[in-house]
Write a structure and sequence with these properties.
alpha/beta, nine-stranded mixed sheet, six-stranded parallel sheet, about 15% strand
């Protein structure tokens, strides 16, 4: 038995999931893997940048325009900064952040330093100065701290590829100064865009008291910093520019002062991106692995590949959705887990699918068409042990006269004749896209619509029945020429809801169908004896049959165990016989005994109709002597099973 859903599949999924998660975890510890995750983060940052309607940030840039105006080498005189502070105080700025290297500040011994220090002391707004890692002149920072400046850390921690992604944390960080919450290590910057995303004003314009209106700076946090692309102005001082998540796409680097502007906007508006903890990552990884493994073990290799593509797309969409809501998922690791689960299934499941396909070929190739066989190989789950409810067309066919033939013929010849008959019938069934269910001695059972759905199943079942009957007639003529008893085929076709699937026990099972519609098909086949007919179809078949021209209503019967009568239709080649029989049965149902008797009597001499006419002539004779119920409409009760 194969492809059972349950504990075996669950254990298989758990095993492959754990292996996938462990493999990806080992790989994720490498720098290369971290770089892949960082690249995915950069892509998401570019696709979904931060959205802010309004910021209270303004940048004053020490740029080429300002250098060209002042015609002064670096570092600038303290008077430049003094003028700027006075201008920002006058305009009503909220705070001033001087993102400058230590050597750019006026030395405490310089004459202009006292003017700059006095401007800090007299300022109505907080002034922040940068303490950078490795600064040697702490005395200078202490000097400015004593006059009222606030000394904060302006350091970034770029990743191995030089890209700034992590939000500076710690109480001494400049970002923390504008945040109402504690910043953790697993928090990343969500940039609002590439370079020049903030209002940026050249230093020379900002320091000019008469050039710009006050509202540009009013209630703004003003960040002052260097924004020059090439290090041609600062000698040995390192240029303050960084790679950001947008650099991989645009190639641009961002000034340090603008990076700080992004960090402040992040903490003010809650835009920063949180990364998952180890436990959260493990949970998502195991969830993806379990889902992927269960998905793949329940499908064919081709379906699994399509499922993998859909799963990867789903992971990417969920990751973007999470990123939009300020959570960064390890998208590369999750995709890798899905891929490794597929590869695990592909390696271990390939041989299993080969065995399944060989099983399907061995079992079904003899009694389904090549097209159905191909579909079963592509979808082996259609053959799982158990049943499903489906509407099928069911055919039963039995040889009349075979017992007599067996008594008068050598066993070897009987076996050869049976082989010819069953082979011919089986090929016809398969030819008409039917499924050969089983042989019952000299009888055959088949159905249409499973394991693969079949269009026009009723038409195909009836066409197969007619062809089977014609084939049996030819064989019977051949036996007659050989001096052997004739054979006659009795066929019953019905349509209805059944339970179809691999039914049976763990020791022995078979692909078959069961249900009331199956029982009625078998009873229709055996009822042929009563009428001397070759092919009977049920009411459900007749109602949905497109070509009804060869079928005529011959009786209304109540089968054993049923309360409702069903119409029985018989196949006829002769239109004349059909017309006369239709008139006879109509008169019979209307209790016009004389007309019914005359019509049946006129057909009595026809060999193929003799049994049928005799049956109704006897019924008419009996019913004439009886007083039938007023509700009687021509139905009869059949006791045969």
């Amino acid at each position: 038995m194969f492809n059972q859903v349950g504990k075996k599949r669950l254990l298989y999924s758990l095993l492959s999931s754990l292996i996938s998660v462990c493999c990806v975890y080992v790989l994720s510890q490498s720098d290369t893997w971290r770089q892949l995750e960082n690249t995915a983060f950069d892509a998401q940052s570019s696709i979904i940048p931060a959205k802010v309607s309004k910021t209270d940030i303004a940048i004053v840039a020490i740029d080429e325009q300002s250098f060209a105006h002042y015609q002064t080498s670096w570092p600038w005189p303290a008077g430049f900064y003094t003028n700027l502070l006075e201008r920002l105080n006058q305009a009503g700025a909220k705070a001033v952040v001087l993102n400058l290297p230590i050597d750019a500040l006026p030395n405490a011994n310089e004459k202009q330093a006292s003017n700059f220090a006095n401007s800090i002391t007299a300022s109505n707004l907080p002034v922040y100065l940068a303490k950078r890692q490795g600064s040697q002149d702490d005395s200078l920072l202490n000097y400015y701290r004593d006059v009222g400046a606030r000394i904060k850390s302006f350091e970034f921690s770029p990743d191995l590829d030089g890209v700034v992604r992590c939000l500076p944390h710690g109480s001494n960080s400049i970002s923390y100064e504008f945040s109402a919450q504690n910043l953790t290590e697993n928090t990343r910057i969500r940039f609002i865009g590439d370079t020049n995303s903030f209002v940026t004003i050249p230093f020379v314009n900002a320091a000019n008291a008469n050039l710009l209106p006050d509202h540009i700076f009013k209630d703004k946090i003003v960040l002052v910093g260097i924004d020059i692309l090439a290090n041609t102005r600062f000698g040995d001082t390192a240029i303050d520019r960084y790679r950001t998540p947008f650099t991989w796409l645009s190639g641009n680097t961002m000034s340090g002062v603008e990076v700080h502007a992004n960090t402040i906007v992040n903490v003010q508006n809650g835009l920063s991106i949180s990364t998952l903890t180890i436990l959260q990552t493990a949970f998502f990884a195991l969830l993806v692995a379990l889902f992927a493994s269960y998905l793949f073990t329940a499908a064919s290799l081709k379906q699994s590949l399509l499922g993998l593509v859909k799963l990867l797309g789903f992971i990417v969409i969920i990751s973007l959705f999470a990123f939009y809501h300020s959570v960064s998922l390890p998208v590369v690791s999750l995709c890798a887990i899905a891929i490794s689960s597929y590869l695990f299934y592909f390696v271990l499941g390939f041989r299993k699918q080969q065995r399944q396909q060989q099983f399907i070929t061995n079992v079904f190739s003899r009694y389904v068409s090549d097209q159905v066989l191909h579909e079963l190989k592509d979808n082996p789950t259609k053959l799982e042990l158990g049943g499903e409810r489906k509407f099928l067309a069911i055919l039963f066919a039995d040889l009349a006269g075979f017992t007599k033939l067996a008594e008068q013929t050598q066993a070897e010849q009987v076996a050869d004749i049976l082989h010819q008959v069953l082979t011919a019938h089986s090929r016809i069934i398969v030819k008409h896209a039917g499924t050969l269910d089983k042989y019952l001695g000299d009888a055959v059972m088949a159905f249409w619509g499973a394991p693969v759905s079949c269009e026009n199943s009723i038409e195909k079942a009836v066409a197969a029945a007619i062809e089977m009957n014609a084939t049996c007639v030819k064989l019977s003529e051949e036996l007659k020429r050989q001096g052997l008893p004739e054979l006659k085929l009795r066929i019953g076709v019905n349509y209805g809801e059944v339970i179809v699937g691999h039914l049976g026990s763990d020791i022995l099972f078979d692909y078959t169908c069961i249900g009331d519609a199956v029982n009625q098909a078998a009873r229709l086949e055996s009822t042929n004896r009563l009428y001397g007919s070759d092919l009977l179809i049920g009411q459900a078949v007749y109602e949905q049959l497109n070509d009804k021209s060869h079928f005529t209503l011959i009786d209304k019967v109540v089968l054993k165990g049923k309360s409702q009568a069903i119409n029985i239709y018989c196949y006829f080649e002769s239109p004349m016989h059909q017309q006369t029989l239709a008139q006879a049965f109509s008169a019979y149902c209307d209790r016009d005994w004389q007309k019914a008797h005359t019509n049946y009597q006129s057909l009595y001499s026809e060999p193929e109709l003799m049994v049928l006419c005799k049956l109704f002539l006897e019924r008419i004779k009996e019913y004439k002597r009886q007083e039938l119920p007023s509700s009687w409409g021509g139905e009869s009760y059949l006791d045969n099973k």
